[in-house]
Amino acid sequence: MEKYKDIKTFDELIELEHGAIGTESRNSYEESAQLFIISEMLKAARKEAKMTQKQLAEKAGTKKSYISKIENGKANIQLSTLIRIFEQGLNRRVGFTFL
């Protein structure tokens, strides 16, 4: 706990644990965090639509196993496929913000 005594913000904690922005370690962490967020958003949207993974896959033109992999953060998702799943499969619009 000694190494955390001077930590005052979440950003400081992330830098301590995963390195500075731009480092390989930090980039890996950021990528994993984004995949987790996408997986949780997809899972929540699918459940809100009262659809199974199989139903969503059929509607979006993909496989149930692929939906499962995305929801479990195990898939490398192409942007076009992600948009198709949300827009065709769930009738949701996709927007992006770049920081």
TrEMBL record:
The keyword Transcription regulation does not apply. Keywords: DNA-binding. SMART domains: HTH_XRE (SM00530). InterPro entries: Cro/C1-type_HTH, Lambda_DNA-bd_dom_sf, TransReg_Diox_bact_type. Residues 42-85 form the HTH cro/C1-type domain. Pfam families: HTH_3 (PF01381). Transmembrane segments: none annotated. It comes from the Bacteria. PANTHER family: HTH-TYPE TRANSCRIPTIONAL REGULATOR, METHYLPHOSPHONATE SYNTHASE. This is Helix-turn-helix domain-containing protein. It comes from Leeuwenhoekiella parthenopeia. The lineage of its organism: Bacteria, Pseudomonadati, Bacteroidota, Flavobacteriia, Flavobacteriales.
